[in-house]
Amino acid sequence: MRILALDAATEACSVALLANDQFTVRALESGRSSAPKILRLAEEVLAEARVSLSMLDGIAASIGPGSFTGVRITVAVAQGLAFGAGLKVVPVTTLEALALQVLSDPVTHAIACLDARMGEVYWGGFAADAVRGVIECSASRVGPPDSVALSPPDGMASSPPGRYVGIGRGFTAYPRLAGMLGVELGSAHAQALPNAREIARLGALRFASGGGVDPADLMPLYLRDKVALTEAERARA
User: Fold this and answer.
1) What is the spatial distance between Cα 47 and Cα 83, in angstroms, rounded to a whole number?
2) Quick one: CA dihedral 96, 97, 99, 100, positive or negative?
3) 3-state secondary structure string, 106-151?
4) Which tens digit of pLDDT belongs to each residue from 169-217?
5) Counting Cβ atoms within 10 Å, is residue 234 exposed (0-12), middle (13-18) or buried (19+)?
């Protein structure tokens, strides 16, 4: 299976090609959005692997949450490439891609957390799943750091046993958050961002189980519709 994966939803921009269990990856991070460079990275990855769009089985795209501009660019580029080549796409959230980096065994649970600015974080709880790669234990959401919790899956009275590992720069933005939750947090995990490599892995699993959709149905996941504080809100912050 050949899957091209795209992500520019955060400070990092990355593209990965998964072909015959081998990855070709391009990634960059700068102090400002790198999203406009995603198409060039995709062209470089395909050229290095000597794979054309027509040879792909599908495209996996990050749909957010993250930077509004980065999410829109990722979705638009994925749609354009998929329409042009007659391919289906698989949506993958940034929080799922983060969680996959630490879900090494069935008893590990991930709390993925990204800095959403304006005093808030994007976060969600995840567990490993053989078919989809990861599944949500708690719905992805946005809110102040003290709203983050080890929420149990629907229908469960308490959180399942096992290790809880934190990952994502939301923990760096709010250093007390990991201690408040009681989750394991390595220094590398606190600096982690989503990467197209994990998006490609999740995309391949979901394509294999029939999860591809028409590119017209690829929708951004913003979680909120506000991009900046008002002057009055900034004065109170």
Assistant:
1) 20
2) positive
3) CCEEEEEEEEEECCEEEEEEEEEECCCEEEEEEEEEEECHHHCCCC
4) 999 999 999 999 999 999 999 999 999 999 999 999 999 999 899 999 9
5) exposed
What domains lie within the chain, and their CATH numbers? Answer: 2-93+194-217 (3.30.420.40), 94-190 (3.30.420.40)
Whole-number Å distance between alpha carbons of 128 and 97: 12
Distance of alpha carbon 95 from alpha carbon 114, whole angstroms = 8
Give 192's contacts (C-beta < 8 A, 6+ positions apart): 98, 101, 167, 168, 169
Per DSSP, helices labelled H in the chain are 38-49, 68-85, 94-100, 170-173, 177-181, 187-190, 196-208, 231-236
